[in-house]
Amino acid sequence: MKKNLSMTDVRAEARFAGDLQPTQHPAPDEGRGRGSGSGSGRPRKRQVLLSAPRGFCAGVQRAIDSVEQALKAHGPPVYVRRQIVHNAHVVARLERMGAIFVAEAEEVPAGAVLVLSAHGVAPEVRTEASARGLRTIDATCPLVTKIHRETRRFAQAGNSVILIGELSHDEVAGTRGQAPGQVMVISEPADIGRLEVPDPERVAWVSQSTLPVEFVAAMVSLLRQRFPALTSPPSEDICYAVSNRQNALKVIAGRSDLVLVVGAPNSHNCQSMVTAALAAGARAARRIQSAEELRDEWLAGTSTIGVSSGASTPEVLVQEVLAWLAARGYPVAEEVVSTVETQVFAPPRDRVPAQWPGPPAAGNMPEPGDTDLLPGELAAAEAVARTTAARTPHRVLPCIS
Ligand code: SF4
Description:
The chain is of the alpha/beta class and 401 residues long. It contains eleven helices and twelve strands. The protein has a domain at 7-56 and 240-337: Cobalt-precorrin-4 Transmethylase, domain 1, CATH 3.40.1010.20. It has helices at 58-74, 88-97, 123-131, 142-156, 170-176, 189-193, 213-226, 240-253, 268-279, 315-326, 377-391, and strands spanning 47-52, 78-81, 99-102, 113-116, 135-138, 160-164, 183-186, 203-207, 258-262, 285-288, 304-309, 333-337. The strands form three sheets. Strands 10-9-11-1-12 form a five-stranded parallel sheet, sandwiched between helices. Strand 2, helix 2 and strand 3 form a beta-alpha-beta unit. Helix 4 packs across helix 11 (377-391).
């Protein structure tokens, strides 16, 4: 049942475009001649195309490093609010090292060390942690902090802020919390017609960082039809890592009978990659958590398998998939490199900085409400976002639903 939508969230029940999976095109042996049983009748050489970049982004690496460094500096246990990144393999490994994952700060004993996840939190979470005397290390990705800052600025200027995102996602919860009562979440085109705002001349949008670029562009186009005075953020909210992984996958998708995206079911950027692969011409695309989920029947009629992984997926899981394929006659993994990533985010401004690399160059300082950013880090993150926005073509689609 939908709620009254005046200055409340639009409760989207439909799934994102990113959840379309596993197979959207004809099966490999029915289709367009890339399979081993098609064309000339001669078996095609089996191969694996491995897209790059893939796997951990700078924000995920920073978050994992934050937990590891906290364990080294303070000893176990170190508490972590929610999954530090959306990957069960990562979580299980950190648990073995002594991390304890909790849903809320109230579960953490007073005085303990608490790490906040890469997805970001509402300010009230930090306030509660502080009130409980917790020693907090905030591993919110700087690119999410950038979205938090945009949201606060839009709201402080009197705008209604439309947040394009998945209501149940941790990142969306954190962004909503930046301006309680002024942020409305929309998840699909139909939500736009249900929006009610106090002043249609004062409406701004932001988005979750991990959505498909095309989806956000389509949603913004529709929002602008409803609110012609719509204000946009100064730079795109879809992060460099998400765009890079999607674009790299698109390069190999058109050559692939089957694309395998390795990543967790609750990882939104992995779901977005499946959508991107199908849109780019892959005959079939599946998200798998690990090699254990692979099925021999998926390979029927295939000659070229594309492989990639989401921003929160450890490379070891990709290598296990490649080994599984090799054991079935797909021996050569050709890496197709689209972009070389060099981005590294400096560590959180926490209580255990000694083991981290040196401080970044001076830049703008955090403002109240920002996460634990070192001087210069937010400026660096915003520069990354601007560069990504300049590189990424905004192909506006009429509708995605
Ligand atoms: S996917 Fe992007 S926004 Fe998310 S943690 Fe990685 S760098 Fe940050």
